[in-house]
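Hey, can you fold this one?
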Amino acid sequence: MKTLDAKTAKIVEKRQAELKKLCIELVQAKSENPPGDVSEAAQVIEHFLTQEDVGYQTFEPEKGHKSIIATVGKGKPSLILCGHIDVVPAGDINKWTVDPYKGEIKQGKLFGRGATDMKGGVTAMLIALTAAKEHEDELTGKTTVAIVPDEEAQGPGGVQWLLRNKKLQSDMCLITEPTSYVDEKYSIVAGERGTFWFKITASGKPSHGSTPALGQNAIEMLTKFLPKLKA
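Sure. Predicted structure:
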């Protein structure tokens, strides 16, 4: 495994120019969410996979909200590399110091909307997949790249749609979303807080203002509950 790891790492190092080119093209492909149409970015990825002779599937439950899945290898264990290609809107262009959709490189860094979150990570996934393909006969298991929309804002497609429709299944998943620096390096985290929506209802008992003790204040009930929720 160490030998295979070294082989794939060497391939990635050799393909730095292609990695850079692909990432620039993805940044240049507008995919703001809202509205969530990632067609331009998806087209860049499909073209790349076709050139690399990597088979893939696309799923588009609503026009423009397209997911791309490509797999190398077979059997177990199975790993999913997952990343999204929608980006938050660039906003007021005049407040940018660079063109957000030019993909400009300065001092060895690529600037533009989505360069970090997360077209850089998506590019890394794709290059890693093609590196693995060169030694597919040596792989024990399979690697699947899942590139999705509807992460920055909820939409009709994305990971939720793929899971709900049983298009994705694996033993483990690595999401190439960037993390904060730890000791001047990006760290790998085991998960994130996520979202949990719920509704709290407090049912009080009304009483006359002159006899509050005969009633039960619903607001006071909630103030006693909220500290417990935090704990």
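The radius of gyration is 23 Å. Let me know if you want another pass with a different chain boundary.
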